[in-house]
Amino acid sequence: MNGKHDVLIVGSGFSGSIIARELAEHNNIASLVLEQRDHIAGNMFDEFDRHGILVQKYGPHVIHTNSIWIIKYLEQFAELVPHCLRMVSHIDNQHVRLPFNFETLQQLLPLERAERLLALFRQAFAGRNRVTVFELVEHENSEIREYGELLFEKAYRPYVAKQWELSPDDIDRSVLNRVQLAMNYDERYVDMDFQRLPKYGFTNLFENMLNHPNIEVRLNTDALEQISLDESSGMVCYDGKSYELVVFTGAIDELFNMRYGTLPYRSLDIRYRYERTESAQPSEIVSYPQAVGYTRSTEYRKLCYFPLNTPYTVIATEYPCAYDKNAQKGNLPYYPIITEGNMALYRKYLSYSQKFKNLLLCGRLAEYRYYSMDDVIRSTFDKLDALREKLGLTNTSSIQSPKSARR
Question: What is the CATH number of domain 7-83+197-263+338-405?
Answer without folding.
Answer: 3.40.50.720
